[in-house]
Prior knowledge:
Elements: H1 12-16, E1 19-23, H2 27-39, E2 43-47, H3 71-82, E3 88-90, E4 105-109, H4 113-120, E5 130-136, E6 140-147, H5 153-160, H6 178-196, E7 204-208, E8 213-217
Parallel strand pairs: 1-2, 1-4, 2-3, 4-5
Antiparallel strand pairs: 5-6, 6-7, 7-8
Helix pairs in contact: 2-3, 2-6
Amino acid sequence: MNHTRSIDIIHPEILKSAHVAVIGTGGIGAATALALAKMGIGHLYLYDFDTIEDVNIPNQLLPIGAVGKPKVVGLIEAIRFFTDGKGVAYRSRVTPDTHLPDVDLVITALDSITARQQVWQARRSGFTRYWLDSRMSAQTFQLYTIDLSGGTAWYETMLMGTREEDVPNDPCTAKAIIFTAFMAAGHIANQVMHLLKGEPAPAFLFHDIARFDLRTEG
């Protein structure tokens, strides 16, 4: 792909040499993976064990013909259709025993606290620099960015101290809409760009899309 029009924002060679893992390829994960592939991330590793259902199509960046396929397969096909990127798909659940590849960043896009807790335990010292925990409800988005070379106690205490019942559960008819996934992907891709360039990035970002409220901390 010709990245001439973005070369002064971030040089393509920085992106081409980057290794990024996306764990969870649903609403946020699918849009984020495609955004990163469009940007020119050279090495994408995608993890998901789920299958595409018809209810996923309106709010996830997957084609109608992908229903019934594994999510990672449908997403890899979409990436190959829209970009010259390839990516590596793992149809598997990430557990504390999973050996993740050596990457620059891990992006988690999961739908439960339990899954986030298990995936967090799969990290190992030195395999990555940054860990991005993305969270989305129908019209709100949160992004935690953890520098694993620094202190992680604040995040681990918060994550491990959270229970499923502590998280509001939206009704089934108000769980997801596509523009939230697009905005979330934009925030994540922007964060990835700053981190790869060695620029400062907020430790926490919150976007209440319905109320046009965007806040950052750290």
